[in-house]
Fold these 2 entries.
Entry 1:
Amino acid sequence: MLAVMRKRLVETHVFRAGQQHAHSLSHGRALGAGSPYDDDMNIGERIERRPDLLGGQPVVRGTRVPVRALVGSLASGMTIEEVCASYRVTPEDVRAALGYAAAVLDEDKALGGASPR
């Protein structure tokens, strides 16, 4: 149950905040000013959003693999290696997806989003 709740939370935040910042990510910039996540994870180089691809959901660049699928798989207990094998992505792609999700949650917090309890 907790994994499902986490997945829904991440999906909601990733989609909502990702829509607001699609332009930033597609041009290699972090979600928020001074985001600590993009520097080490190359989010802008690995994650993209295009209106013609999965309705604009954030995906691993050059694939149809949604960020939410990678994050959700990790939340359900899969290892990074298992996720990579299942979705045919690299460990760097998975880390970028996690960085994207973390940056989106950080952005939501900075904008005064309610913290779930």
Entry 2:
Amino acid sequence: MKIWDPHFHIWDVSQTTTSGHDPEQLFAPEGNPVYTLERYEKDMAIEGIELTGGAFVEAIAFAQREGILRGASFSPDPEMVHMGGI
């Protein structure tokens, strides 16, 4: 079965992130502070499934515990936006 994934997630909320995410405000889903496109592709390597493409959209919008989010503007990490042939 061919699948084009309309909505998938990759993230970097590690202490050394360059993604613009604040690791003090966000959590590491399932305890994984970094989930790369390569890990996603491995997770999607399921017998009988052919991943033909997908869409990843980065957006940062959330309420901070201390109020309005302030700080350096978001600058995407080239490693996080590389689509690796998908």
